[in-house]
Specification:
Elements lengths: L1 H6 L4 H11 L5 H13 L4 H21 L10 H24 L4 H15 L2 H18 L4 H25 L4 H37 L3
Helix pairs in contact: 2-4, 3-4, 3-9, 4-8, 4-9, 5-6, 5-9, 6-8, 7-8, 8-9
Length: 211
């Protein structure tokens, strides 16, 4: 009911308060089931995708309390998590470079190289989409492939925009506007995806899929 009200106009803060008061603890698989049941009831994946970040925010404190333990190094999820640690290092590095930019020309070249390196996260997304999602679908679990794949595509579009817009940055003022508009949006979505993967997708996959 809280999630339905959120889609009808309830503010994120009110939804979070209601959730913490009326529900409290929730597991990653329960959250995944909520989104799946909304899809089953006819709510479009695009509508859920639009609110995906807000859903994660509402559930954040409950998820952090029930974070799943690390899996064995031989487990596929272990590799996904290792990749996420590397992605976090890169996003942190890019934020620091953007904050402490020196000469514009050198900064543009350095930032472009770092963005192209970070773009390697798309391989991580492709493996998730083409290897993990089909197994979840076989369990009748369609939510991630419909909602999360859409969010992955948003990140891909933000990469294209960030790389294209960087070419047009020629002054310090344009640089500040670029960081605020294109760069911050990209990094926030990438970091938000890490949270969704680690707290919802991976624990649910471990629970639903056999060895």
């Amino acid at each position: 009911d809280i999630i339905r009200q959120l889609h009808r106009g309830l503010s994120a803060n009110e939804a979070k308060e209601r959730f913490e008061k009326e529900v409290g603890n929730v597991t990653s698989s329960e959250i995944a089931e909520i989104e799946q049941s909304l899809i089953n009831d006819g709510l479009s994946p695009d509508e859920i995708k639009k609110f995906c970040n807000v859903h994660a925010l509402i559930f954040q404190s409950a998820l952090e309390k029930s974070a799943s333990p690390e899996t064995f190094p031989s487990h596929p999820v272990y590799l996904f998590r290792l990749e996420n640690r590397e992605v976090e290092k890169l996003t942190k590095e890019i934020r620091e470079v953007a904050k402490n930019n020196a000469k514009l020309k050198a900064f543009k070249k350095g930032l472009r190289d770092m963005l192209l390196k970070l773009k390697g996260v798309e391989t991580h997304y492709e493996r998730k989409e083409h290897l993990l999602f089909p197994y979840l679908e076989r369990q009748g679990f369609m939510g991630p492939s419909k909602v999360m794949w859409g969010k992955d595509n948003e990140v891909r579009d933000l990469f294209k925009a960030a790389l294209a817009d960087l070419k047009g940055v020629n002054t310090d003022e344009e640089l500040q506007a670029y960081v605020k508009k294109a760069l911050d949006a990209l990094l926030e979505e990438i970091e938000g995806m890490i949270f969704k993967e680690e707290n919802i997708l991976f624990p649910t996959a471990i629970e639903k899929l056999s060895a």
